[in-house]
Structures are given as structure tokens and as C-alpha cells.
Write a structure and sequence with these properties.
- The protein has 334 residues and is of the alpha/beta class.
- Among the domains are: 128 residues, Rossmann fold; 94 residues.
- The strands form two sheets. A nine-stranded mixed β-sheet has the order 3-4-2-5-1-6-7-8-15, with helices on both faces. Strands 10-9-14-13-11-12 form a six-stranded mixed β-sheet.
- Strand 11, helix 7 and strand 12 form a beta-alpha-beta unit.
- The longest helix has 26 residues.
- The N and C termini lie far apart (48 Å).
- The model has no long low-confidence stretch (mean pLDDT 92).
Length: 334
């Protein structure tokens, strides 16, 4: 992404979540058109829905940018396995160069299959198929694996895909920004869409009717080796904090809360890192998210030896897991 594109992305972010009423007003006619077209698109695609012989659970959101879907998908995989299911995952593989559908392997390149699918596979070893056509991805997953339940990562607006359960993820801090649809605001659909979802998970503080999800990470891992260290060991020290995620402030704030002094380097979501992005003229530690790390492991040793990533885990109330399993049992008994 060029410097101009990065600047434009930052400007839109300031319109969506900051105080730019003039820009919002100028863009609002396009937002009304977007909302109308999204509604018409949903009505059309819903008539073309394809069903599958296994339950399909969608994890998505109504805003653009990161809300914490990937940690929740990993948590769901773990909980479903405990309950006896064999979950598989489908996703678009945003940023990947693959064509058609592809079963992701742990040794694949993020540039080929996307950073988030690769992270999920490396963390969980769950079967995962990427493809722009979610129905084709599910068909391939079921044909190639023994999955008896499908999790669609970020599939809320893929209305040709019949779903049995919907989980919407909301950013507990930024919520819905200025409340406008694209391009004046960050919304893909209006907030009332959430009333149709089976569950709403808030990444952070939860409002009425929502389930709170806390994202935690305490142990840093070497980018290329098996070495680990607690984040607290860097308290009071200066580090380079590098990330290309939907909401970089969340990552930066977690490091600041741990007492670190940051030199911040924020890149666009799904940024394809190059070695030059980590080439700083000093020996300070470089910290990044796990999503960033899957794209940086093959960089020169003089960079990777001082680079660390922070794995995170989603923490949700056990009652939430029980509710999901109960709903799945209800589906099985029709």
C-alpha cells in the first residue's frame, strides 16, 4: 500500500471515529445509497442460499476493520472440540493470492492464503479452506476433511451461504463509530442487523444483551525460535511496536498498560510486510502481533533475532459456551 493510500485510510478512520462533521455530511448521500444497495443485495442473495448437511456457524461483524473475530474463532474451535465436534473453518483469505478454493497448510505463505487463515491453522491445526465463494469453500472443506461443523470466519454478509447460527462481534470501545454506513462511516449494515443475530460478543465492555470477551496476552515469543519471555520483563523499556491490524491502538494500548515505552509503527490491516519495514537503525526489541508474525518469519536473521510477537487468547464466560452447545443440540433435534 502506497503512502497516499495509507494517508487516505487514516483520513477515513478519522471521519468514522473522530470529529469531522463536514466530511461526514459530504459523504452521507453515498452512505444512504450504500445502505440501500446492501439491503437489496441481501434480499437477492438470500433467494439463492445453499444449504449443507452440517451446521454452519458464522462469526462476523457489521463494521469494517478488526473487532476480534480471529481470537473468537480460535476459542470456538477449542470449545467445540471439547464438546465432541470436529470443526472446520472457511474464510476469504484476504490479502492472499490464491485462486478458487484452497485447503490451507501450516507451511503455506501468508501472501498466498492470507494472514488470519494461516494464523488459525498454525495455532489450532483445524482444517481451513479459503475462497472468495464461501459455498464453494464449504463444499471443498466437507469433501476433503471429516469436519462435522463449519465456522465461517467473517461471513455475516455472505447471504448466499445458509447459516444456522450467527455470532456478531462488536468493538467494545469504538462500537459503531459515527453510526453511518460506508463511506461516511464504518458500517457494512445498520446496527439493527444485530437484532437478528443469535449472539452478540463485545470485545471489551459489553452492553445489555451482549457477551463480554476479554483478549489477553502475557508471554512474548521469539519470532523464529522457541524462546519466550514475559511481557513484564520489558516494563520501563523502549521498544518498536509494529502492527498491521484493523485497530492498531488496541495492540499499542496493551503494551502501554504493561509499562512499555513505545515507538509506534502502524500499517494498514493485512499489510504485506517487507524487511525494510523492520529495518530500524538501533538494537531495540521489535514487538508485533501474532497475525503480523506469520508474515515476517523469513526475514533476515539480523532482524528476526530481536523480534517478538504477543500471542493472545479470548476469554469468555463458560455460560456462553454452554449456550452455543445448547443451540447446536437443538438444531440436531430439529
Amino acid at each position: 500500500m502506497t503512502a497516499i493510500q495509507q494517508g487516505l485510510a487514516a483520513w477515513f478512520d478519522s471521519v468514522w471515529y473522530g470529529n469531522r462533521p463536514l466530511a461526514r455530511t459530504m459523504l452521507s448521500p453515498l452512505s444512504y445509497l450504500f445502505c440501500y444497495l446492501a439491503k437489496q443485495r441481501r434480499a437477492k442473495l438470500s433467494l439463492e442460499q445453499q444449504t449443507f448437511p452440517v451446521p454452519v456457524l458464522v462469526v462476523g461483524n457489521i463494521t469494517v476493520g478488526g473487532t476480534g473475530k480471529t481470537p473468537l474463532v480460535i476459542w470456538l474451535i477449542e470449545q467445540l472440540r471439547i464438546a465432541g465436534y470436529r470443526p472446520g473453518v472457511v474464510g476469504r483469505g484476504f490479502g492472499g493470492k490464491h485462486i478458487g478454493v484452497k485447503l490451507v497448510r501450516a507451511h503455506d505463505a501468508a501472501s498466498e492464503v492470507g494472514d488470519e487463515p494461516l494464523l488459525i491453522v498454525q495455532r489450532t491445526a483445524a482444517p481451513l479452506v479459503v475462497g472468495k465463494d464461501r459455498n464453494a469453500a464449504i463444499a471443498h472443506l466437507l469433501a476433503q476433511t471429516d469436519s462435522n461443523l463449519v465456522i465461517s470466519d467473517d461471513g455475516l454478509q455472505h447471504y448466499r451461504m445458509k447459516r444456522d447460527l450467527e455470532i456478531a462481534v462488536v468493538d467494545g470501545a469504538r462500537r459503531f463509530g459515527n453510526g453511518y454506513c460506508l463511506p461516511a462511516g464504518p458500517l457494512r449494515e445498520k446496527p439493527k442487523r444485530l437484532t437478528e443475530c443469535d449472539f452478540i460478543v463485545s470485545n471489551g465492555a459489553a452492553q445489555s444483551g451482549e457477551t463480554a470477551m476479554q483478549i489477553r496476552g502475557a508471554n512474548l515469543r521469539s519470532l523464529v525460535g522457541a524462546e519466550q519471555q514475559t511481557l513484564s520483563l520489558l516494563q520501563g523499556k523502549t521498544v518498536h511496536a509494529v502492527t498491521g491490524i484493523g485497530n492498531p491502538a488496541r495492540f499499542f494500548n496493551s503494551l502501554k498498560q504493561a509499562g512499555l515505552n513505545l515507538i509506534e509503527h502502524a500499517f494498514p490491516d493485512h499489510h504485506q510486510f517487507t524487511a525494510s519495514d523492520l529495518s530500524f537503525q538501533d538494537d531495540l526489541p521489535i514487538l508485533m502481533t501474532e497475525k503480523d508474525a506469520v508474515k515476517c518469519r523469513d526475514f533476515p536473521a539480523e532482524l528476526t533475532h530481536k523480534a517478538w510477537y504477543l500471542p493472545i487468547e479470548a476469554h469468555l464466560d463458560a455460560v456462553f459456551a454452554e449456550k452455543i452447545m445448547r443451540r447446536l443440540k437443538e438444531l440436531a433435534h430439529g
